[in-house]
Design brief:
With 144 residues, the protein is of the alpha+beta class. The chain has a single domain, classed as Regulatory factor, effector binding domain (Multidrug-efflux Transporter 1 Regulator Bmrr, Chain A), CATH 3.20.80.10. The chain contains four helices and eight strands; from the N terminus they run ββαββββααβαβ. The protein has an eight-stranded antiparallel beta sheet with strand order 1-6-8-7-3-4-2-5. It is globular. It starts with a strand and ends with a strand.
Length: 144
C-alpha cells in the first residue's frame, strides 16, 4: 500500500443506474470500445470504475456506477466531465482476477482497519494501461 494525493483530477465518464454486477463490467467494455473508436485509448490511458452508492443502503434499482477516463488536456471528450474529490487515498495493488478482486472487497474492513477511511467518498478502482498489461488493478481508498 502507498498513500497518494489526488488533486484536480477530472474524468470523462459514462454512468449506469441499476444493480451492481455484470452490467458494470458490460458498461466498462462499451466505454473502452467508445474510447478506441474515438482515438482516446492509448498507452497513457487511465480508466476508473466508481461505485457511487453503498449497496447495503441503496436499493439495487438506484445504485450508480461510473466508468471514466482521466482527462488529459490535449484531448477532446464528447462525454460529461466531473472531478474526483481531492485528498489522500490509500492505493492497494491487486491482481486483476475475479477471485482477487472479490477477495479484496470481501476483506476490505480487515484490510483498512488501521486506516482513517473517509466513508463519505467512494472507493475508486483504477486501471492504467501498464497495470492492465501486468494483470493488475488498483483500489484507491479515500482517507480523512
Amino acid at each position: 500500500m502507498i498513500i497518494e494525493e489526488f488533486e484536480n483530477i477530472k474524468i470523462a465518464y459514462m454512468r449506469r443506474v441499476g444493480e451492481y454486477g455484470k452490467e458494470n463490467k458490460k458498461l466498462m467494455e462499451i466505454f473502452k470500445e467508445y474510447l478506441k473508436e474515438n482515438r482516446l485509448f492509448d498507452e497513457n490511458t487511465v480508466l476508473v470504475g466508481i461505485a457511487l452508492d453503498n449497496p447495503t443502503e441503496t436499493p439495487a434499482t438506484m445504485q450508480r456506477y461510473d466508468v471514466g477516463i482521466i482527462v488529459r488536456d490535449e484531448l477532446e471528450y464528447a462525454l460529461p466531465i466531473r472531478e474526483i474529490e481531492n485528498g489522500e487515498y490509500a492505493i492497494f495493488e491487486v491482481p486483476h482476477t475475479k477471485e482477487n478482486v472479490m477477495n479484496f472487497w470481501e476483506n476490505i474492513q480487515n484490510i483498512t482497519t488501521d486506516l482513517p477511511v473517509d466513508t463519505s467518498k467512494p472507493i475508486i478502482e483504477r486501471y492504467s494501461n501498464y497495470k492492465i498489461n501486468s494483470q493488475l488493478c488498483e483500489f484507491c481508498i479515500p482517507l480523512k
